[in-house]
Design a protein that fits this description.
The protein has 278 residues and is of the alpha+beta class. It has helices at 8-17, 69-74, 82-90, 94-97, 102-108, 116-121, 139-142, 219-225, 256-275, and strands spanning 2-3, 21-23, 42-44, 54-56, 60-64, 125-130, 133-138, 143-145, 148-149, 156-163, 170-176, 187-195, 201-209, 216-217. The longest helix has 20 residues, at 256-275. The chain starts with a strand and ends with a helix.
Length: 278
């Protein structure tokens, strides 16, 4: 069964009636098949224009779930989104960025998804729709673990929304991989800093990916940064205890100990870069 609805309402009705796998950009769906057969039941949402694009509202900034990384990279967004735009440049290749969607990146729920740490630093929320209604939740609650989300089988992720207040300050994204492009992150990091009137940290957000079942924030470090002078010396504020929320694993891309060491280094570099004069 292959369905390509023209409206969100039609898509939700189809999901309510049939167990369907959702296809947006396809850059996660098709590689996951390997040598196996194509899915027997697909819901192609590439025709849903209402899920595409970036909207800047007075209180919220909304990114449609079907928006590609290329469009996010080119969008006019506040400096707090710079980390997300930097991550958009690192998602696969240019060809992948032209079709891969932000919603697909989140629903695939890879611990190494590059888009997640920047969105966590923005306190992003996700919108979900079904034939029975809509709901919204924090991205941190939506991502349950490795390849696991809170999306029900009858739901479609429709948008990512960010409070306008969280778009303040500057942000930076950094990652380590075996090469520059077309690589799964060994560790990824996002930092967002908001200065006060005296050049000190008024608000800090730090998130790390690829070091736990789902990317997560570092609240102890964020609290320790508040009140410190913004500048390259912020790199020295990172201590081992600040990495306590992380739970990295040993795999072919790196050991748990290596990942922790890299995370500390990348967080420090991101803080120094984010605090450097623009």
């Amino acid at each position: 069964m292959y369905l390509r609805p023209g409206t969100l309402s039609e898509a939700c009705e189809a999901l309510a009636a049939h167990p369907l796998r959702i296809l947006a950009g396809g850059t996660d769906v098709f590689p996951s098949l390997g040598d196996g057969p194509a899915p027997s039941a697909l819901l192609d949402i590439t025709g849903l224009a209402e899920l595409d694009g970036v909207t800047l509202g007075e209180e919220w900034i909304r990114i449609g779930a079907r928006t590609t990384w290329a469009r996010i990279r080119a969008a006019e967004l506040p400096a707090g989104f710079d980390a997300l735009k930097q991550a958009a440049r690192d998602v696969g290749s240019v060809q992948i960025q032209n079709v891969a969607t932000i919603g697909g990146n989140l629903c695939n729920a890879s611990p190494a998804a590059d888009g997640v740490p920047p969105l966590l630093c923005l306190d992003a929320r996700v919108e979900l729709a079904s034939a029975t209604g809509r709901r919204e939740m924090p991205l941190a609650a939506f991502l349950r673990g490795v390849r696991s989300t809170d999306r029900r089988p009858d739901e479609i992720l429709t948008a990512i929304v960010v409070p306008r207040a969280r778009a303040a300050g500057r942000s930076v994204f950094a990652k380590l991989g075996a090469r520059r492009y077309l690589v799964i992150s060994v560790v990824s990091v996002a930092v967002r800093l908001v200065p006060d009137g005296a050049g000190r940290v008024a608000e800090a957000a730090v998130a790390v990916g690829s070091c736990s079942a789902a990317a997560c924030r570092l609240p102890a470090l964020e609290a320790a940064l508040v009140g410190l002078p913004i500048g390259p010396d912020l790199a020295g504020a990172v201590g081992p205890d600040h990495l306590a929320p992380l739970a990295p694993i040993d795999d072919v891309r790196g050991s748990a100990a290596y990942r922790l060491d890299v995370a500390a280094t990348l967080v420090g570099r991101a803080l120094a870069s984010c605090g450097a004069p623009s």
